[in-house]
Amino acid sequence: MDEYTPSEVFLGPLTTICPTVNYANQMTVPAGTIWGPRIIPDCQLLYVLSGQTTVRLGPQKYTLRAGNTIFYGADSPHHIEATHTDASSFVSLHFDWDCPSFDPVHPGDGICECPESALDQHPKAYVVDLYDSGKMAFPHVIEMPGLESLFIQIAREFMFGRIGYEVIVRGMLSQLLAIILRYQANEGRSPEAHRKIAPALEAVKRQLHSSWDAKELASLCGYHPAYFATLFKEATGQSPKNYLIQERIRKAKLLLLDPGSIESVAEQLGYTSLHYFCRNFKEVTGQTPSQFRKESISL
């Protein structure tokens, strides 16, 4: 049974989470604007559109530039200062991770100033179950491309408040959180480890039909198998064997959409046993290949 410390919040499986946007806006502030030290009653994502911002989150201090995002949750002391010589622009999203109601609860009444000494307290970690990728804490600092448009869409949809906006922003926030977690699972766990095993990942991608073992993949990267296995787990959250299975089944889903026998699909992916292929497929998807194919062509 997993145990979590008081500074951790276990959110459960990603697919069961229903986030609610409590408040969202897009703003531009002059240099020297400060928020905090403070705590908030919900969670917040702060995306930097332009300028530069310094954030003290617990004992850590971060410098955020355009394209960077910071995340913190309830009762996590923080201090924010727009430090660029010119104005800085942000998108701010306040939200609850899992709330059955679509109705936003404005965080304003629950935001409290706190003493600077409170910043010595470590921020809470919010842990999500990503199934085959394991349990992962949502990152406090996010540096990944392609998020700006989605942040702006959420803020504008919320601010305009047109019919059905609550449903739309929930969907877009769910997408945003999932994209960040996917990136973190695939590349953000340890960018350095990911770089070191890149030749192995590329080989698996190009030759899914090959019966790769950890020793062969390690040799492609020039590492001892034991060290390679550690790097691989650090970078992907999986063992080389499980990673190969996941990639094969992902490809199998595409192949099963085309005409052809299930035996042929298994052979293309390097399976010498149809039984073993079907077992892997069901372990990953919860369905047999036949069930998946039947549902995929249903109207």
From TrEMBL:
<dbReference type="InterPro" id="IPR018062">
    <property type="entry name" value="HTH_AraC-typ_CS"/>
</dbReference>
<dbReference type="InterPro" id="IPR013096">
    <property type="entry name" value="Cupin_2"/>
</dbReference>
<dbReference type="Pfam" id="PF12833">
    <property type="entry name" value="HTH_18"/>
</dbReference>
<dbReference type="InterPro" id="IPR037923">
    <property type="entry name" value="HTH-like"/>
</dbReference>
<dbReference type="InterPro" id="IPR020449">
    <property type="entry name" value="Tscrpt_reg_AraC-type_HTH"/>
</dbReference>
<feature type="domain" description="HTH araC/xylS-type">
    <location>
        <begin position="198"/>
        <end position="295"/>
    </location>
</feature>
<protein>
    <submittedName>
        <fullName>AraC-like DNA-binding protein</fullName>
    </submittedName>
</protein>
<dbReference type="Pfam" id="PF07883">
    <property type="entry name" value="Cupin_2"/>
</dbReference>
<keyword id="KW-0805">Transcription regulation</keyword>
<keyword id="KW-0804">Transcription</keyword>
<dbReference type="GO" id="GO:0043565">
    <property type="term" value="F:sequence-specific DNA binding"/>
</dbReference>
<dbReference type="InterPro" id="IPR009057">
    <property type="entry name" value="Homeodomain-like_sf"/>
</dbReference>
<dbReference type="GO" id="GO:0003700">
    <property type="term" value="F:DNA-binding transcription factor activity"/>
</dbReference>
<dbReference type="InterPro" id="IPR014710">
    <property type="entry name" value="RmlC-like_jellyroll"/>
</dbReference>
<dbReference type="InterPro" id="IPR018060">
    <property type="entry name" value="HTH_AraC"/>
</dbReference>
<keyword id="KW-0238">DNA-binding</keyword>
